[in-house]
Amino acid sequence: MHPGAGSGGVQILSDTEGVDFNSWLLRWHRETEKTWDPLIPDEVNPPILKKGAVVIRFRVLPNGRIQEGSMVLEGRSGDTGLDRAAWGALTGSNYPPLPKEFHGPSRTARHLPLQHGTEVEAENQG
């Protein structure tokens, strides 16, 4: 993991219909970190220690891909480089398919609305 990277998380915004998403979310998080790490600007490390938080809302299709046109930047970090890194991590990742037990909010267009929040902050150097 990039030394200056903080944490990120994903929030499921729809009814999970009782389906356990824990293992899927763990795989999703690992894939995002792997893709995100090389995109994070070096300015998050000392001596600059740039930080920010990015929030992106999107939908995941049954095959794990992000639905085209569903990504919305809802919260900017204040730095274009950090925003682009978060966006690029989502668009460049190869996510696992959704659990087969999940039928989604619509039977005809099964998808999972998610919100991804990423915080970038330098590690404590003291």
Overview of this structure, please?
The structure is a single chain. This protein has 126 residues and is of the alpha+beta class. It has one domain (5-99): Fusion Protein Consisting Of Minor Coat Protein, Glycine Rich Linker, Tola, And A His Tag, Chain: A, Domain 2, CATH 3.30.1150.10. The chain contains two helices and four strands. It has helices at residues 22-36, 80-91, and strands at 5-12, 52-60, 72-75, 112-120. The protein has a four-stranded antiparallel sheet, with helices on one face. Helix 1 crosses helix 2. The radius of gyration is 15 Å and the shape is elongated. The two termini are 19 Å apart. The model is unreliable at 106-110 and 120-126 (pLDDT under 50).
List keywords for this structure.
126 residues; alpha+beta; Fusion Protein Consisting Of Minor Coat Protein, Glycine Rich Linker, Tola, And A His Tag, Chain: A, Domain 2; four-stranded antiparallel sheet; 2 helices; disordered C terminus
Provide a concise account of the structure shown.
With 126 residues, the chain is an alpha+beta fold.
Strand content: 15-25%
Q: In one word, what is the shape? A: elongated
Total number of domains: 1
- Fraction of residues in helices? 10-25%
Detail the poorly predicted runs. 106-110, 120-126
Total number of strands: 4
Major beta-sheet overview: 4 strands, antiparallel
Give the class-level CATH name.
Alpha Beta
How many helical elements? 2
Level-2 CATH architecture: 2-Layer Sandwich
Structural classification = alpha+beta
Radius of gyration based on Cα positions: 15 Å
Helix-strand string: EHEEHE
